[in-house]
């Protein structure tokens, strides 16, 4: 007859699976992995058998690549010299300092405006005035 067949805590150890890929393609994200308690024979155990051991992290931070961002050029001069006009500028989606990305890669809700109203000084008001004919 066998006795004392239960697993002893010293026969258990934490084991980890592989890290997942980063949760984001750009910016800050996380990786995760399974962490489980295992007996020497490779069988899975309840976590209580490993609670006396330091448990490895199952989550860690990671960074994806650079996120595309909107890049806005300088505003043009006002389109009129008096009254209400328009100023324009170029707006494009960029990956890093120099690489141009597709507009669909950038968030459409954060796109800077490319046109806005400008107010130049008021236009002079001219009026026709009829006078008598001169000789």
UniProtKB/TrEMBL annotation:
One of its GO terms (cellular component) is extracellular region. It comes from Mustela putorius furo. The lineage of its organism: Eukaryota, Metazoa, Chordata, Craniata, Vertebrata. GO terms for biological process: extracellular matrix organization; proteolysis. This is ADAM metallopeptidase with thrombospondin type 1 motif, 9. Keywords: Secreted, Zymogen. It is found in: Secreted. One of its GO terms (molecular function) is metalloendopeptidase activity. Its main location: secreted. InterPro entries: ADAMTS_ADAMTS-like, TSP1_rpt, TSP1_rpt_sf.
